[in-house]
Amino acid sequence: MGINVTKDNNTNEVTIVIQGRFDFSMNSDFRKVLSDKDCMGDKYMIDMGAVEDLDSSALGMLLLLREKAGGDNANIKISRCRPDIIEMLKMANFQTMFDIV
Amino acid sequence: MKVLIAEDSKLSRNVLSSILEKYEYTVIEAADGAEAVEKYLEHEPDIILMDLMMPVMNGYTATEKIKKLSGEKFVPIIVVTSIAETTSLTKSVEAGADDYLNKPYNAEAIQAKIIALSRIKDLHDALEENKQKIENLNKQAETELVVAEHIYDYVLDQGVDDLTFVRRYMRPVTNFNGDILMSAHTPAGGIHVMLGDFTGHGLSAAIGAIPASEIFYRMTAKGFSIGDIAVELNDRLRGVLPMNMFCAACLIELDVERTVMNAWNGSMPDIIVTDSSGNIINRIASSHTALGIVPSDKFDRKVDISSLKGDERIYLCSDGVLDARNKDGVKFGMDNYLHAFRNSDDHRTGLNIIIDDLFSYAEDGEINDDISLIEVNVDRSIDSWHLEDENLKESRNLSAEWSANISFDADALKEVNPVPLLLNMVSGINVIHGHKERLYTVLSELFTNSLEHGLLGLDSSLKSSPDGFMEYFEQRGLRLAELDDALISIDMSSAKIDGDWFITINVKDSGKGFVQTKPTVSLDKNTGLSGRGIELVNQVCESVEYNEIGNEVRVVYSLNKKNNH
Fold it and tell me: Which segments of chain B belong to CATH 3.40.50.2300?
């Protein structure tokens, strides 16, 4: 359960691993990550391999990260999603704003 | 810290006092129970040492009284007993005492007890304070929720004209919904329906609902299309809502003839269209980002166009329906949702079945999002809009004759939505409602004919088959994009003839002329794909005349006739 952030200082790539239900309960943890300078980088990889479910506040958190990471210029990959999670991201048209791999 | 000593023996009081003063406590003395209660009220001590056997009022009664008076506040009472009195311990604890001390007094023991009880008192006070804070916050939240609910209801009530063919089931998770349903007739008799699902509930949803409903109803009344409305909603919500909040939404638009459905689905579950037997004949999946996220230059307003036969049912739902879980934590999902339609018929429509299915599915499970399900019964909507005769009371006399012209060249036809402009032309006329609707219908029908047949050379009969229908709209788009050097000119004027007022509308296009075919079926029976429009024009106007080449039409409308049918 929860959010785990690691950063590669050589490539300046941040990896965010999210586990369990990605929903409103993660809001404050996620915001902590966003306000932590050490968690910001040039590239982001969000590993959602262990995400069981997603709600609209999770989508909101991803949008916040995107904004923080430069809006249209943000480089964010979302990886290892289960098929049903991909389905939900596509319903929200997030493939146009994030690189879903 | 103040300590109250209740003890009838003066000697004992002095011993106790000197011990306590040594530890720098402020000491208050009482010689019996009654005095102890009085002194408690007067000095509000932090802790009380209570002897049990005292004249006037004994220690049990005094303890009981003080505990009652102190209420939610924690005032520790230590009873003082001699070893021989141990049986009275239970009795004193029952009376409310928190701890006991044995005589004779031992300074260390007294200090230890006081410190221990002070610690408990601090804990209690902190808890009490938190409890108060939470209670206050709760009250505040409740008040705000009531305010939000009021705003929400007010906002949503203003537009809901009784569209009985739009059936709804809406169940909020909290006191009220983050989902909004809006529906209204367009000035031309079409229908707009919107189901929106805001992130979050309560106040945050209400904040978005205010501009959303204002925009939806105002723009619908002014004749804007759902594409226009989606653009405006997106823009406004992006401004009003924080980045992580948005509104997933479906907007649908039915034309006056109920032959065309335009749909815009932004992050909502598939829109489902079934025939009257419950067979699914169309699914429109989300192809857009929710409202309030992307900047206007990136916003995609493209609608999905499909044909209707007139007996369909259209279903919109919020994701709360699909996300309801059974006792094993498995979601209801799209398959169960689609399955429900198979068993529907005229008596038990999809709405009833889905709700029944959903609740039996989630009976021992959980539903933790708002549930909204909307059913639009197209067949029942067909006669929902009339050019009401009762509205056509004697018109106020116009004071002057006037004329107006509005022209569209090729660029304007490509870029400008003509409907609000035409509507504006009519709404400025000093006549009673009813006439305005009729005039607007006439005007838009004539304009559409000039554009689609006169300039773009489209053939109405194409629309009579579903394939041709799509072809028609494809061609319309392609030909409009290629249009060059074209003009539609509309003249409108009022004139008084023999004491009666008439409005003349003249619409001319730069095309080669088109043959105006008369519809072959009567208005009432016509549920086909086209042909109702010009019949309406014929019915409400005194005269309808095309010129010889057929690129100019002149109609005369009487403002004095109460009933033009």
Answer: 2-127
The neighbour count for residue B424, using CB atoms within 10 Å, is 13
Class assignment of domain A2-100? alpha beta
pLDDT of residue B387: 59
B389-558, which class in CATH? alpha beta
Q: What is the H or E stretch that residue B239 is in?
A: helix B226-240
CA distance B353 to B313: 14
The nearest CA of chain B is from the CA of A31 a distance in Å of: 11
Q: Which two tokens stand for residue B378?
A: 């197209």
**Could you give the residue range(s) of every CATH 3.60.40.10 domain in chain B?**
158-381
Structure tokens, B504: 């003349």
Contacts of residue B201, Cβ cutoff 8 Å, sequence gap at least 6: B172, B173, B174, B176, B177, B178, B370
* Chain B interface includes A29 (CB < 8 A): no
Please list the residue range(s) of chain B that carry CATH number 3.30.565.10: 389-558
Write out chain A's pLDDT in tens, 101 residues.
Answer: 689 999 999 999 999 999 999 988 898 899 999 998 888 899 999 999 999 998 888 999 999 999 999 999 999 999 999 999 999 999 999 999 999 98
- Supply the ipTM of this predicted assembly: 0.89
At B11, is the secondary structure helix, strand, or coil?
A: helix
Query: Among partner residues A61, A92, A96, which is closest to B244 by beta-carbon distance?
Result: A61
CB atoms within 10 A of CB B266: 28
pLDDT-derived band at B433, boundaries 50, 70, 90: low
Measured between CA atoms, the residue of chain B closest to residue A31 is B244
Q: Which of B173, B241, B243, B287 should one mutate to test binding to chain A, selecting the residue with the greatest count of A CBs within 10 A?
A: B243
pLDDT band at B348 (very low <50, low <70, confident <90, very high): confident
Lowest mean pLDDT among B21-30, B76-85, B228-237, B410-419: B76-85
Which burial class, exposed, middle or buried, applies to A73 when counting CB atoms under 10 A from its CB (0-12, 13-18, 19+)? exposed
pLDDT score of B4 more than 90 = yes
Which top CATH class is B158-381? alpha beta
CA B272 from centroid of its chain's CA atoms: 21
Q: CB contact, 8 Å: A74 with chain B?
A: no
Q: Which residue of A has its CA nearest to B270?
A: A91
CB-based contact B405:B491 (threshold 8 Å) = yes
Residues A57, B288: C-beta atoms closer than 8 Å: no
Judge whether residue B47 has pLDDT over 90.
yes
Query: Domain spanning B2-127 has what CATH number?
Result: 3.40.50.2300
Q: What is the pLDDT of residues B270-315, one digit of tens each?
A: 999 999 888 999 999 999 999 999 999 999 988 898 888 889 999 9
d(CA B200, CA B198): 6
Q: Is pLDDT at B397 greater than 60 in this prediction?
A: no
Cβ contacts (< 8 Å) between B243 and chain A: which residues?
Answer: 60, 63-64, 67
Q: Do A63 and B369 touch (CB under 8 A)?
A: no
